[in-house]
Amino acid sequence: MQVIREYAFSSLRRNKYTSSAILVALFLMTTLLSCFCGMVYTMWADDVFLNKWYDGDWHGELFDNSYGRDLEKIENYASVSAVMIKGSWEVAKISDSGRRLYIIQRPATKEYWNSMPEKHSILEGRLPKTDSELVLSKQYFEDHPDAKLGDTLTLPVGDRMYQGKVCLETDIWRDGETFRQTGTKTYTLVGIMDVTTSSAVPAYTGMSYMSRESIAPEDSITVYLRFDPMRDTYRELPALAESIGYEKDEYGEYLLRYNARLLADYFIMPPKQSFSLEMLVVPLMFLVLALLIVAVFVLIIHNAFALSLNEKTAQFGTLACVGASPRQILAAAVSEALILVIPVLPFGLAAGWFVNIQLFANINAHNDIGRAAPDIVPVFGLPAVLPALLLSLLTACLSARIPAKRLARSLPIEIIRQEEGGQKPERKRHKKRRKETGASETHWFNMRSRRLKHVPFAHAGRSHPVRFSGIIGELSANSLAQRKHSYRTAVISLCLSFLLLTAFLYSFSIQEASNELIRTQAMEDEHISVSISDGREADPEFFEELNQVPGISQAAVYNNLTCAAWVSAKDASPDIQERFGGFDGIISRNKYSLIKRDGRYRMRTALIGLEEDCFRAYCGRLGIDPEPYFSDPSLALIYNYTRDPDASTRRHPVRCGLLNLNQGQTLEFTEHAYDEDEGDYTFSLKAGELVDALPCADLYNAQHFTLTAVMPMRHVLDISAFCSERRHNSALNINGRFLVGSEGGLSDPQIEKISGQLEDIVSYYYGSGDYIFTDVIDQRKMIEDMKESWNLIVAFLTAFLAVIGLSSVWAAITGNLRQRSREFAMLKSVGLSPAQLQSLLFLEGVTLGLKPLLWSLPFQIVFMAVFLRLGEVTLAEYLPFAPLGTILGYTALILLVVLGAYLAGGRRLKHENIMTAIKDDTL
Known about the structure:
Elements: H1 2-14, H2 16-55, E1 60-67, H3 71-75, E2 80-86, E3 90-93, E4 102-108, H4 110-115, E5 122-125, E6 133-137, H5 138-143, E7 152-162, E8 165-166, E9 178-193, E10 203-209, E11 220-227, H6 233-243, E12 256-258, H7 260-265, H8 281-311, H9 313-321, H10 326-365, H11 382-409, H12 412-421, H13 428-438, H14 470-482, H15 484-525, E13 528-532, H16 540-547, E14 552-567, H17 574-580, H18 582-588, E15 595-597, E16 600-610, H19 612-622, H20 627-631, E17 635-639, E18 641-643, E19 655-657, E20 666-670, E21 682-691, E22 707-712, H21 713-720, H22 725-731, E23 734-740, H23 748-765, E24 771-775, H24 776-819, H25 821-829, H26 834-871, H27 875-878, H28 884-910, H29 914-919
Parallel strand pairs: 4-10, 6-9, 16-22, 17-21
Antiparallel strand pairs: 1-11, 1-12, 2-11, 3-4, 3-7, 5-9, 6-10, 7-8, 7-9, 13-23, 13-24, 14-16, 14-20, 14-23, 15-16, 17-22, 18-19, 20-21
Membrane topology: Multi-pass membrane protein
Main location: membrane
Keywords: Cell membrane, Membrane, Transmembrane, Transmembrane helix
């Protein structure tokens, strides 16, 4: 074995040209794998960072009431690694008049401040470090221009009171509310927070600091947790809740909350989550790309190793004759690969890292819209280095093993004969043909086409699929057919390189098409949206001004009252019976809000209250007379459908009937939609027309198995007046969805104009913290920014893959032409002119250049069909997004590179001395 190892080292020193070619191929391979693994790891790490930035670094929350006395059990729980605590609200009074009379603030521990997103909302100043330091909403400083950081406020603290009862600190304002002072506290303002509070709440929001020791046993606290190991979060959090005495709700679940997006980044899914093909799109895309990269480089580097082994055929035959086993010969070839790849690895890894840095620097330069978090930081830790390292070593070993294994199988005498003959042994019929034609070769060109059959490879390609007319065309086709084995590696590597690039483009373009189609549909359904929450009933003048804005083709201004309907098993529709086995079948899934009590079923219901003009327009679109619904407050339009959770997809919702319901039937409702609801008001509604459409697309996104009733807004507000305060306040929130008319063509300036008019009206009646206003123009700007970032990634990787594929083709063709010097010298010796030689090479180049496109077409079709299926995109929908220009351009580039390689080789062949070439047929 020592001899084999020494031979490998000396062989590398003697064959510097071939070793250099292999080193270049290994460097390119390591660079691309390093870049690819680093890019994937950076994208994953950035997604984790964004989830922590916006949502916080926590795994689970004890969402029910927790107290200071529970902390010892929580902190000592075996799998809990960190505890983030937020204290109860504290109210301080700052004024006796105005809309905002109080400061409401919550203290938080050091671990909370370090782990949760509130620290990123500090616009100016610093985090609080003592319980007397306060960071306060920017609204306070806007309303108090004289206030500045460092000011000290000594304020009375206590409770908000209404009708002799303590109010929640975050409740809306009520006439007759008073303040009961329980003490005095001094605050020092140390920071300004980027938060706003609805004007319905008469307070400014703030946060302060608290130590763990200051928490009393009876203090109400909110607890966020991190677990170690993280993968046990979905099992450990319910167990912890049980250990501290939590009670299950009506669905048999504890009131808990999970940071699901962060957990999903670590591939930790809820136990009850059903499998979906959509979950495989991104992982499958990266897996396919990684495998294609490895396959391409195996073939590219295998070609270089095959040339190297051909140079050393006699040496390996000699080693075999003196006792080297096939395994030792194989080990020598693999040792050569490892010796070459190990020095290249650090440089390739570093080059890939450098390329990643440049790539994400360009992305950050175009990623200013819609990203409040810091720029993307390229990361290159062990999760990126280790896969790149292992894949590089695997690729190098496989590349050397393939030709070495073929050589190791041969007998020693066959190896030596192969070297002496200059090529692989041919079949007997080829030998016979050489004997028959050997004497005639010198007359070939003078005999013209009749004597073409006497050329050594003249008949080898009669079955070749690509045929050209004339002697040169026949010669070109026969030449490729005769050397199909020597060209096989180059052609396959070129095909895989072409397939890798097209697969990469297809995967990203199909994903873009799927997302764009979904976004486009959503944008077509509503151009402008507004959500208002200020705790007051909207003024009629506000609605009148909204309705007077010209250019709006369809509007839905509505409120929503959540309640529940009690139904029996026989009320289930035929769809529910057939698809789910009735209401009991739905409940058995333990995933939906439907619940069974005393033989009856509680079904979640949404009462949608449409503004008067919007209700009339909605009825007009459905061909329904609206007047009975205004005159009878117990009459409602019923949308008796829900999305089928099994059959529906992102793009193609499938609806199924809910209840076996008839027009005129009376339904019993209760505001007690969930067990924790305090109110118990019940009422009856009579089913009017059973409609098959809702006022706006946003209402279709209701929870599964939710019944929807549509009424005039006034009637919904009258019903909510008898409900609990919480339920009534929720009915005061207003939502607006607007479609801009498309007469004369819909344009962005038209949408911007109408959006500006609507926002002016909303801002006149409501404060800045009372509403959220968006339109499709803002959404498009964010989407275009994101697309530009992705396009940079796609363009970069496309160019990189193209360079690698084309360089491998160039190397393969030039190397093959160098090996064929003797053949072309013989042809020139019998009269082949330079022009004919150039035509011969041109035809070979065209044939070879078109093969990648033709051979890869079946694989492209299969790949595209699979991803179109996963992305729910039809071929007709995909065509506008298909990268046809890039693929055709790359095909043309392949032809140019192939022809360029043949042209460069042809120039050398034309100037080469015939006698020298015939005598020397080495590399």
